[in-house]
Amino acid sequence: MSKCDQCIVKQFNSLKFLNREELIRISGCKTSKYIKKGEPIFEEGERINGVYCIKDGICKVSKMSENGKNQIVNLVQKGDLIGERSLISDEVSNLSAYAQSDMEICFIPREEILKDLEKNPAFSLDVLKKMANSLKNSENLIVDMAQKSVKQRLAETLLNLHEKFGKSEDGTINIQLSREDISNIIGTATESAIRLLSTLKKDKIITFKGKDIEILDKKALERIAAGF
Amino acid sequence: MSKCDQCIVKQFNSLKFLNREELIRISGCKTSKYIKKGEPIFEEGERINGVYCIKDGICKVSKMSENGKNQIVNLVQKGDLIGERSLISDEVSNLSAYAQSDMEICFIPREEILKDLEKNPAFSLDVLKKMANSLKNSENLIVDMAQKSVKQRLAETLLNLHEKFGKSEDGTINIQLSREDISNIIGTATESAIRLLSTLKKDKIITFKGKDIEILDKKALERIAAGF
DNA sequence: CGGTATCTTGATTGGTATCAACTTAAGTGG
DNA sequence: CCACTTAAGTTGATACCAATCAAGATACCG
Predict the structure, then answer these.
(1) Rounded mean pLDDT of A123-145?
(2) For chain B, is the Cβ count within 10 Å smaller at the N or the C terminus?
(3) B171 HSE (CA, 13 A, CB side)
């Protein structure tokens, strides 16, 4: 089993503020898991009892609305931690996490993280900073959801995905999402998202390669996202 | 000037985790302010350089969307802290705060709070918990905004306001909000909110006393909020 | 008492959801 | 490898919800 203190992935999250000794302790009690595409890491209402550090792959973090529709609130990737929120509030998870690609993750039990939160101020301050940043993003998303049209949100989502996941050699956005996934991000019916995607394609603002999407005219998308 | 260590208000927020010595230090550098209804405490893009502790009154925390519409993301009252997020991320504020009633607030400068965040783990852990809770609320709000109809959101908002601010002697919800404010909470046009309120009144689910709203049939509101 | 902000209702338009039919792609097992 | 099954994607038609525009009513304030 690999050692946390040698793990490159931790450079991208708060764990980098732990010292060598703390990392070795965590190494001793962490467990590694491989999750297949589509499978859950955890689900709403589940008690997580720790945090997951994503070593490889992408996962979608979502929540079921009372209407029975799924809303994706975040997409997380290599280096990110998930499950911190529930751990800190000591509550069951209010969110679900499903593997969007095959994944490799490490599970670190609750007590170990709490120990470090209490004793290592640099670590807990960084966790706090990350949380503050998540909060800012969420607040922005609330405003977008409440005030922007589906078309604006789609344009913005495409830009965000491009920003976050980059593009692969063929120029397409480097994440595999179904039309339904995209709808669940922008919070709309699948058919609506499909229809808007096809008009964007007609206007040569985007194009499809297989099911992947390539952005042809970024400026145009930005204009649409801002409301023409 | 009043002393923080004797202030009752701090019982409701993270400041209660500071010890007597820390509170006396903060007392020495805090400043008290009175804000009139409608006036800003701070605005989007402003550098806040500290946190505000609300001693009395209610304030609305809002954000302007690119469409030029205002979205209220939170209503905070006596005992709450505002401005923590920007302080922790060391960024200008992404939100504005306007007094919804006459207010009395205390301003505590950035450096003092940071000192305590670094040295008092109980304090910083509680700040972290509060932030985690805000994040959960925001995530829930995203889902509601994305998936629920305006009618559902209105019903839910009325229930939330009733829950949070209670009712005054005449039975009405104990917060003064204009129709426009309500619209800015649920993210809709003012006329739409007005229309829906009037149908709720016709159905004897709510009633108006002046501009204040009284909930007559809570169960019915809950059914509407859940989608009939 | 006029003037202004807020509230209310009506008519119209447009954006999205929904329902239904069909096409294409992706397995799966004989 | 083909026939079958199922999932995913696409397009059209329709209905409904909510935004917008317009006009009037009511409350508020100097």
Answers:
(1) 96
(2) C
(3) 10
